[in-house]
Amino acid sequence: MNVEGNYVDEEVKVTLDEEAFVIFRMNYGTPIYAEGSTAYFIPRVTGELYIEAIAGDERINKTISITQRQSGGGGGGTDYYTLPDGTFTVTANGKEYPVKWRTALGALEKASKILGFSYTVEKKSWGLYVKCIKSKCEKSDGDTSGWMYWVSGSIPGVASDEYEIKEGDVIIWYFSRSMDDTPDASPYKIKITVSTGYIVGVEPSWSSTSSASSSHGTYTTSTTPEKFSKSILLLPDVEKIVELGKITEKIDIVSITLKSNRSKQILLEVYEDSIISAPGKIYRCFSIHLSDSGIEGVIEFRVSKEWLNLCCNPDQIVLIKYRNGEHVELPTELVREDGEYYYYKSKLKSFSTFAIIAKWKGFPLNTTDDRILRALEWLRTIQNDDGGFSNPNEESDIAKTSWAVMALAAAGENPNEWVKNNTSPIDYIRNNLNESIGRMGTADYARTILALKAADENPRNFSGINLVDMLKSKIKSDGQIGDFIYTTIWGILALKACDEDVNKSVEWLKQQQNEDGGFAWATGEKSDYDDTAAAIQALISAREPKDSEVIKKALDYLKTGQNEDGGFRYFGTSASNAASDAWIIQALVAAGENPMEWKKNNVSVVDHLLSLQTEEGYFNYTSYQTSNPGYMTACAIMALLGKSHPVKAGEILDILEKTDDSIVIPAKTTISKQTKTVLEETTTPETTPFKEAGDVKITSEITSESQETSNTTHIILIAVLVLAVISTIAYIRMRR
Q1: Residues of the chain with pLDDT under 70
Q2: What is the pTM of this model?
Q3: Torsion of CA 267, 345, 597, 366, to 10 degrees
Q4: pLDDT tens digits for 321-355?
Q5: In the beta sheet, which residues pair with residue 89?
Q6: What pLDDT, on a 0 to 100 scale, did the predictor assign at position 28?
Q7: Element (H, E) at 704
């Protein structure tokens, strides 16, 4: 396979030495198929383009990076994919060291920028040593394992920062179990080609779990998920039943029946896939792709009785399909059972990514639900003329606008389409980021990154700013991000959303769990329910097992925060509030728990949150107080739609009960977010430490007084006094 071209909106040409099926997948999205010895593809976005060709029993694949063509100028006049004739700096052992770009280490640095991964370096007596790339570090596969590099087929005898490369070199960074391993034996490698003009091409090879063995013993590596591929001839209106063989054991698909109205030769591909969130308890996830359209089918799948007996009933099982960022519930029929399995069938009118789930009853809401639409319509009214968001009658800022963007994405909306005076929330952030960046702190960087990721923007180069690097600069040697626990939580969420290595920060966060199982906003403080819910989401986003002890203890702590009215409090004995309800619901969704089952006096946390919605559509803070209605409403929308952090671009949790699998696109509406304030006695090291937490937290005795829960007139008067105090405080610290 020969591949030419790697720019957005320009032709990528694939040339093969024989006829083959060719599969293009941009950013591992929906496959596009071609056939022949020459194929073309025009990418419309930046990212990774996966190309695979299948001819008979042979297959070959390559991954190339797609970027915007740049004209040069600025930064030494170098293209994004070119190694310049100069130096950059790396940090090792707390010090900065200059490194020439045209070295083996410079090639790795350039590859890390192109593909968006991180690596760590240590200073040794003999030079700079690469300790970790992405999340793979030395000694993880034995005491002799670690990173090595080859150049054009041999191992140089010098440190990578000293080996100068030339045009035509091929550099392979690979993880080795011993000094005599070669790149071919490694499941982790990055191939970097340097062509004329020092143009860089990068081909990563990074897989997922399997085990292998060698003379050095057994070790865990990764491998591509097992894939079923078969070329099939379909005849007009004749059903073709395809049995999947041994992959059935992995994903529990029994068979796929295909039918076409005309003769055609097609390629069928089936493989295990992963979906982070779904509106129920996930049993299996997989993808089915065909090389042609206009084909209907029936899928028969099975669900283990042993699994069902632990959680659900047979009538809760449904097949859902993910397509164009939306997922749709398919008609699912229970057809038979045996001693081990229940067997189901679903009709398919098209093929994509699927999940077999046990659906929760009554949750999450659909984006077409009247309560969601009313909330969105109200939030539309508080978008400001500059495109940004704030509370009513306030000025826009990046923090509140970032919350709004995340909420819009949670509702399946494109933030770029929510405009006021021809300006969207993304435009507002772009127009104001440079001016605001000097006042932003750790949580601000993280929140803005999460908003940009939710909007499918690039936080590594947005308005000319690399927010990911700025956030990474806040990571301390022990893994803490910023100065507090909550800044570490937000940092983990944001960096993990950018596929950065957060393992050290995760370990630091887990060590901050209090004896009661909860997490506080800062070290040494008492646990609170909002920060515990946020910590659960951060840990699970970083692949902490949902059944781990730290998650189980945190969930047990959350249970102690449910009030008699079914709602949740922030801490102490405070009143149930919309923000805490929303955070707890999001944490439960992340942990695979059904929030409808978390009840007090037969009222669930979902019921309580819905009880706080007003006729106008916004959500009150408590049953007797309106505070920060924009933020409360946005939090409620995300939670009620079953979206935990980080919110992903293009995801919608609509469950549409239809007789076919067509998609209904809901009417467009708008959201904005707001904040909870925390007042502190002293200034902290964070430049702009925001806390959006619905409770008002004031120092000394005022705090406890203002947060006593009672509906009596006496307490209401105290609340009024507290609000008066708040208006006189010069330093307001919003931290979520």
Answers
A1: 27-30, 69-80, 116, 178-180, 206-226, 274-277, 323-327, 649-736
A2: 0.58
A3: 60
A4: 876 445 688 999 999 999 999 999 999 988 888 99
A5: 98
A6: 62
A7: helix 700-706
Per the rule left: phi > 0, alpha: psi between -120 and 50, beta: everything else, 666 is beta
Amino acid at 44: R
pLDDT reported for residue 220: 32
Q: Which residues pair with 603 in a beta bridge?
A: 600
Residues 546/547/548/549 CA torsion (nearest 10 deg): 120
395: buried, middle or exposed (CB in 10 Å: 19+, 13-18, 0-12)? exposed
Question: How close are the terminal C-alpha atoms of the chain, in Å?
Answer: 50
Other beta carbons within 10 Å of 215: 7
Per-state percent for the chain, helix, strand, coil, to nearest 5: 25, 30, 40
| Whole-angstrom distance, CA of residue 2 vs CA of residue 243 | 34
Dihedral, 533, 538, 541, 542 alpha carbons, nearest 10: -140
SS3 1: coil
Q: Is the peptide bond before 392 cis (omega within 30 degrees of 0)?
A: no
In contact, 173 and 133? CB cutoff 8 Å = yes
Q: Is there a contact between 488 and 471 (Cβ–Cβ < 8 Å)?
A: no
Contact 635, 579 (CB under 8 A): yes
Tokens representing residue 218 in the block:
């057994």
Amino acid letter, 141: D
Amino acid in the structure at residue 59: R
User: Cα–Cα distance between 640 and 438 in angstroms, integer?
Assistant: 35
Burial class, 599, CB count within 10 angstroms (exposed 0-12 / middle 13-18 / buried 19+): middle
Report d(CA 377, CA 669) in Å as an integer: 6
The pairs formed by 312-316 with CB atoms below 8 angstroms and a separation of 24 or more are 312/281, 312/358, 313/358, 314/342, 316/280, 316/358, 316/359, 316/361
Backbone angles phi, psi at 172, to 5 degrees: -120, 115
* CA distance readout (Å), 372 to 375, 377, 658: 5, 9, 20
Rg (CA), the chain: 27
User: Strand pairing partners for 732?
Assistant: 679
Give the C-alpha separation, 591 to 547, whole Å.
8
The amino acid sitting at 293 is: S
Rounded CA separation 84/88 (Å): 10
pLDDT recorded at residue 145? 85
Measure the CA angle with vertex 380, ends 374 and 382; round to 5°: 120
Pairing status of strand 253-260 against strand 217-223: unpaired
Place of tokens 């970032």: 402
Q: Which amino acid is at 396?
A: S
CA nearest neighbour of 572 among 556, 560, 587: 560
Q: Which residues contact 303 (CB under 8 A, 6 or more apart)?
A: 252, 283, 314, 317, 341, 342, 344, 356
| Cis status of the peptide bond prior to 595, with omega within 30 of 0 | no
Q: Own/partner pairs for 342-346, CB < 8 Å, 24+ apart?
A: 342/302, 342/303, 342/305, 342/308, 342/314, 342/317, 343/254, 343/300, 343/301, 343/302, 344/300, 344/301, 344/302, 344/303, 344/317, 344/319, 345/298, 345/299, 345/300, 345/301, 346/298, 346/299, 346/301, 346/319
pLDDT, position 441: 93
Whether the bond into 364 is cis, omega within 30 of 0: yes
For residue 731 the two structure tokens come to: 């330093």
Type of residue found at 163: Y
CB-based contact 357:302 (threshold 8 Å) = no
Distance (Å, whole) CA 493 – CA 503: 12
pLDDT at residue 80, as a whole number: 52
Residue 265: how many other CB atoms lie within 10 Å: 12
Cβ atoms 276, 353 nearer than 8 A: no
Nearest-angstrom CA–CA distance, 288 and 549? 35
DSSP letters along 191-225, please?
EEEEEGGGEEEEEEEE-EEEEEEETTEEEEEEEPP
Distance between CA atoms of 399 and 401, rounded to whole angstroms?
5
* Cα–Cα distance for residue pair 480/711, rounded to 1 Å: 40
